[in-house]
Amino acid sequence: xTRTSLPSRLRTRARVGSALLCAALLAVTFQTTAAAPASAGxxxxxxxxxxxxxxxxxxxxxxxxxxxTRKAKDDLHLKSVELRVTVDGREVVTDALGESMTNVPAEPxxxxxxxxxxxxxxxxxxxxxxxxxxxxxxxTVERWLxxxxxxxxxxxxxxxxxxxxxxxxxxxxxxLAELEAHPFRQWTPQELLAFPxxxxxxxxxxxxxxxxxxxxxxxxxxLEKITGTRIDELLKERVWGxxxxxxxxNNFTPDIPSPVLHAFTSDRGIYEESxxxxxxxxxxPGAVITTHIxxxxxxxxxIGSGELLSPRGYRTLLNPGTVGLGGATASCxxxxxxxxxxxxxxxxxxxxxxxxxxxNPSFSGYAAIQAYLPSDRLAIAVSxxxxxxxxxxxxxxxxxxxxxAELAPGTPLSLG
Length: 416
Fold this sequence. Notes:
Elements: E1 13-16, E2 19-22, H1 60-76, E3 78-87, E4 90-101, E5 104-105, E6 112-113, H2 117-131, H3 156-161, H4 173-181, H5 189-197, H6 213-227, H7 231-240, E7 249-250, E8 264-265, E9 272-273, E10 289-291, H8 293-305, H9 311-318, E11 344-346, E12 351-353, E13 356-359, E14 362-363, E15 366-373, E16 378-386, H10 395-407
Antiparallel strand pairs: 1-2, 3-4, 3-16, 4-5, 6-10, 7-10, 8-9, 11-12, 12-13, 13-15, 14-15, 15-16
Helix pairs in contact: 1-10, 2-7
């Protein structure tokens, strides 16, 4: 799924075809840091060349990162780990460990599903439109989503920050049962939205916080109507193209561009290949993306530094008004309406935690994380796949946390 996960103190879990869902939150005090420059090699942040293993130009630092990664791979019983770390846009290390399939080594240029990373790109595109005065964040959505209940009280900001009160179809038992039984099913937006819309809202729009995939599905539809541009073309024009993310793309089918990093999962009670399970349920058509590890690191750096935004837009990305929202009420349990704090909260399409700007998809055997620490201009990108003995949860997060403790000991990433 395009799930976002958060620290354990803010975490709620649900089985999705047995894929783990964790709602999202996070951040601390941020400085408006200037955008980190791209790698001198080119706009893609990896020298305009293919994504390949490096000779580790930072020497001992790269070796320490690889030692940490190898140990974590063994500790977590992972099938593969793909890794890229940059500082100030300069490569520290790019590598891949383990296998994609039996006797097929994992390579850094292999493509994998990136799930909720698209939410960070959509949030940035929305803020660009706001800066161009084409819309306001506090515009209500009835003109673009006239059939949505409470559309005259729900704003673009609420959709982008998960403050609408809509239920999450990914936690609906009926949806989960159907997804587990039919992982190759092609879902339409109407079919997905039927699940949250049959429930009452958790709260009045804008008064609390709760994670829902429905919000970004609806936001994508609204953006298409606002711009007259299909969401995949909009993201290509405003994010992927300007950042040189040549290996990040939408897929309208379950296909993944070659070369493919294969995924395996025990979500349905048996260890099986899940590479081509249909991801159409994860978000709106046009925003179901694949990427590779070099593009993911570039995305971490650019989104996390606000490279495509003004300083004001960047501040909104990091805290669009979510801090202070959430918390248990008579109508919404604490496991759903998670408390948003300065130290850990959901931004606008990103998670902010302890100074890090994060997105962390995990579904159908794939797990990944893009994480950026503005104060150190440090970007960490990790993608993992599982053996039958791997633990549940986002194992890419665990590796990123261990790397951060080595490279930023004063501000480690902590999602657990």
